[in-house]
Each structure stands twice: as structure tokens, then as C-alpha cells.
Specification:
- It is a single chain.
- The protein has 328 residues and is mainly alpha-helical.
- It has 13 helices and 5 strands.
- It has a 3-stranded parallel β-sheet, with helices on both faces. A two-stranded parallel ribbon has the order 4-5.
- Helix 2 crosses helix 12 and helix 10 crosses helix 12.
- The longest helix is centred in the C-terminal third of the chain and has 30 residues.
- The structure holds tryptophan.
Length: 328
């Protein structure tokens, strides 16, 4: 079975956009591939988080992924900093990466612009660490967002260069697996095209019923359908996108018909979406709460995941040491 590895940024809570994007595609992939997922807490050091926040952020995101259906028996899930083997590979790979090419990576340029007082070397070599995350498991596929394209290009370069320099065929070149290609894009309910943390328009998997209802009822609409069978403006189509995702086909057909014969009342539509959304989110939220309350379980899952990851990484690093010429 092909190996799949992906990293998860431990920033904040999951929202519906994440759920219908990365999260659901990870859950699906765990049945189809030999998957491993990890929480990228080393990468988060580029912004110098507070020591007291680090483990909590990792547990939060771990609880949420588990609640969404990541099954550690199918796909070990670990915390990056529990696998020190990665760092040895990171060092070797860095010897083959060049300042100029790392400076040209868009995510580096953006971060350098956003945090001009903290353009640290870790930020520059972020793609090398990411390459080490992937190559330590000799993974074939990496589910990522489109924003990771250049980082993935660097990871392939790392693999290729290592193979060329030592005349071996050791590292496979990891391929991007864009989950957005099969994901449902979740719109914002504020009239913006996309649900996102920076847009401040998110419905979170941790939101309770009351919060969800409030957010849905506030959704931007217009004056209502004017002519039978007219195309829907974007803000209204956004509501129908929600309806399609959370309600039954019959309910969708009902409101679609009402739109077409101009009898649709947005209040009814929003109420329907709110109730169906609450029903969808509630069991996930309850599982998040249950996992979050059981720190021992979370830590055990992470520890067991790390054992699998360390065995895999250690085997790779051992071969790499031999290839480079070190004692093993
Ligand atoms: N850079 C990725 C992001 O920002 C997170 C990440 C770190 C990652 N290491 C990785 C993703 C390895 C895939 C593989 O989302």
C-alpha cells in the first residue's frame, strides 16, 4: 500500500471549511492508504509560542481530529516533537538546500513580510523540515492544500538531490495530493466566498447549538427572488450550498422549488439550515468534549503514534547514515 504522510498545524480549532476539506479527506485516505498524520509543533516554533501553550494546542487539535474519525489503529497520529529522528534527517537535507532557492519560497517571503522582526533561520528552512517529515517515512503521497505547492516542490528537490548526489534511488519523490480537488468548498455566511479563520466567519466544530443558530440566522441575504426560475446571486447560492451539505435531497428540492416559484422566505431556509447543521455538528462536538476531557487517552494515542513513527524514521535515518558514509 502506498504511504501517505501529512502534517497538521496546531493552530486554533477546526471549522466547517477544515472539516469538509482536509479532515474528511484524511479520514477517507486512512482506509485506502498506509497513512500517518502528525501535529507540526516544531514548525509552529517559527512564531515563538508560549511554552505553556504548546502541549495544550497539540492536544486540542488531536482531540478534534480523533473526534472527526481519524482512527489511530488505521492511521497512527503523533506529535512531531516526539520523533527526534526527524532532526537528523533535517540536518542532512539542509546541506543540499541553497539559500537562494529557500529565499524564493512564497510562504517564506510572506512570513518575512508579516514578521520582519523575526525572520529566523527556522523560517527559512521550514521547507527542509517539512521534507524531513515526509522523507523520513519515504512517503509517496502528501495530502496538502494548494498553498503548500512550493514547499512540496522543495521536498521533491530534497529527495531528488539526495538520490543524485549519492547515486542512489533511495527517496521516492513525494506527490501532492490536493484534497481541495475533491472537497466541498464551504462558503462564508457573511457574503464572502470562503469560510476561513482570517475571514472571521467560521462555524466551529466546537460551537454549541445556540452559537450555530445565531451565526446562521445572521447570514447575509438579499431582497428575495424577483422572477421565477432566475439564477441565484452568490450570497443565496452560498445558503443553498449549506443546504446541500447538511440537509436531505428532499429538503433541498423543496427550497429549490420555492426559490424557482418565488415563494421562498429566507427565514425558513436559515432555520432549516441551522437545525440540520446543529444535528450534524452536535455528535462531533460531543466527541471532541469527551476526548478533550481524557488527557491520558490523548497522550497514550500520541505516544503510540510516536512509537510507530520513530521506528519508521529510525529505519530511514539508518540507511541515510550508511549512504552518506557514517557509522551505524
Ligand atoms: N506546512 C504545512 C501547513 O502549513 C504543515 C506541514 C508541516 C506538513 N510538515 C508537513 C504538511 C509535512 C504535509 C507534510 O499546512
Amino acid at each position: 500500500m502506498e504511504k501517505v504522510v501529512s502534517g497538521i498545524r496546531p493552530t486554533g480549532n477546526l471549522h466547517l471549511g477544515n472539516y469538509f476539506g482536509a479532515v474528511r479527506s484524511f479520514v477517507k485516505m486512512q482506509d485506502e492508504y498506509d497513512c500517518m498524520f502528525f501535529i507540526a509543533d516544531w514548525h509552529s516554533l517559527t512564531t515563538h509560542p508560549k511554552p505553556g501553550d504548546i502541549q495544550q494546542s497539540a492536544r486540542t487539535i488531536l482531540a478534534e481530529y480523533l473526534a472527526c474519525g481519524i482512527d489511530p489503529k488505521k492511521a497512527p497520529i503523533y506529535v512531531q516533537s516526539d520523533v527526534p529522528e526527524t532532526l537528523e534527517l533535517y540536518l542532512y537535507l539542509n546541506m543540499n538546500m541553497y539559500l537562494g532557492e529557500l529565499e524564493r519560497v512564497t510562504t517564506f517571503k510572506e512570513k518575512a513580510r508579516k514578521q520582519p522582526d523575526n525572520v529566523n533561520a527556522g523560517l527559512l528552512t521550514y521547507p527542509t523540515l517539512m521534507a524531513a517529515d515526509i522523507l523520513q517515512h519515504r512517503a509517496a503521497k502528501v495530502p496538502v492544500g494548494k498553498d503548500q505547492e512550493q514547499n512540496m516542490e522543495q521536498a521533491r528537490k530534497c529527495a531528488r538531490r539526495f538520490n543524485n548526489i549519492y547515486g542512489v534511488d533511495f527517496f521516492p519523490e513525494p506527490q501532492n495530493f490536493y484534497f481541495s480537488d475533491q472537497a466541498i468548498k464551504i462558503p462564508g455566511l457573511d457574503g464572502s466566498g470562503k469560510m476561513g479563520k482570517s475571514e472571521g466567519n467560521c462555524i466551529y466544530l466546537r460551537d454549541d447549538d445556540k452559537t450555530i443558530r445565531k451565526k446562521v440566522m445572521k447570514a447575509v441575504t438579499d431582497a428575495g427572488p424577483q422572477e421565477p426560475n432566475s439564477p441565484r446571486p452568490e450570497v443565496i447560492e452560498n445558503l443553498f450550498t449549506f443546504l446541500r451539505i447538511v440537509s436531505s435531497p428532499e429538503v433541498y428540492a423543496h427550497f429549490d422549488a420555492q426559490w424557482n416559484d418565488c415563494t421562498l422566505r429566507y427565514g425558513d431556509l436559515k432555520k432549516q439550515i441551522a437545525e440540520d447543521l446543529c444535528a450534524m455538528v452536535a455528535p462531533i462536538r460531543e466527541r471532541i468534549e469527551a476526548f478533550s476531557a481524557d488527557v491520558d487517552l490523548l497522550d497514550r494515542i500520541a505516544r503510540e503514534g510516536a512509537e510507530v513513527a520513530r521506528a519508521s524514521a529510525a529505519a530511514t535515518v539508518r540507511e541515510v547514515r550508511k549512504i552518506i558514509g557514517f557509522r551505524v
